[in-house]
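Q: How would the structure tokens look for this protein?
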Amino acid sequence: MRNTILTVLAASGILLSIAGRGLAMAPVVIDRLVAVVNSEIITLSDLQREESLRKNDAKQDDRQVLEDMIDRKLQMAAAKRAGMDVTDKELADAVADIMKRNSFSEVKQFEAALAKEGLALDQYKTELREQMTLSRTFNKFVRSAIAVDEAEVRAYYDRNIKTYSLPEEIRVRQILFPLPDNATPAEAGEVKAKASEVCERARKGEDFMRLVRRNSPVADSQDGDLGFMQRDHMLPELEEASRTLKPGEIAGPVLCAGGYHIIRLEEVRTPVRPYDKVKTEITNMLYQQKLENTYRSWLQTLRNDSHIENRL
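A: Here is the predicted structure in token form.
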């Protein structure tokens, strides 16, 4: 439940990694200063507490955790300078909304639920205020500066067209000489001989379409055209026979699927996903890239304009 409560603001898409923090504190024997951020300090006990609250997160070393804490202090300072503090009323309204979303009709119920997570209401409000402030600041200084236009999306698609390629497809035309299931060896030999004779004529340059029409067992409105298909969707015997063919070349006769097949490779293509089908995907990806780059750049600016001592 605590995670649900503390992540209500996630819908804003904030990139800041601020885990829900309880009251548990790792044992500290000797405290000392580990960082100075302008006029604020971070002590070893602060760092240890932060690490204990990230016990369910991926393992991070001391330096990375400390850098995250420094970034958070810089952002809170930027919010204060910009007059973006969260008012008591805004905080109260946010708590009321969270209680409503989680079906708490009384404050005591809410406090009891927080207590199960080792968190007091006052501490929860402090963290929620910080989360709201950071979200507001992020939206103002980072998100509001981001836009992705149609030209950028199209240019990315054109530059990376291979990324959107689909598996290769081939178009094959065939002449089929059916072989009955109960054919005698002599009958099978006759069918194979006929197929071989027609295949040889095709290889010597006789009009393939005319051979299709003259030798198809029934009227074939497609003139033997099997259409485009991926190689692995073909009958294995035909796929193997077509593997080394170039467009216009002929293979056969191939025995499979109830008869002897003569095939001609008509065309090879590598289709791509249409732009309209991937436009939203590319837009979101470019937006996210800009968001992350702008966020990092903004943090670096805050660091450049601040006095920071990392003593770890």
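The chain has eleven helices and seven strands.

Strands lie at 33-37, 40-43, 169-178, 225-230, 250-256, 259-269, 308-310.

Upvote if useful.
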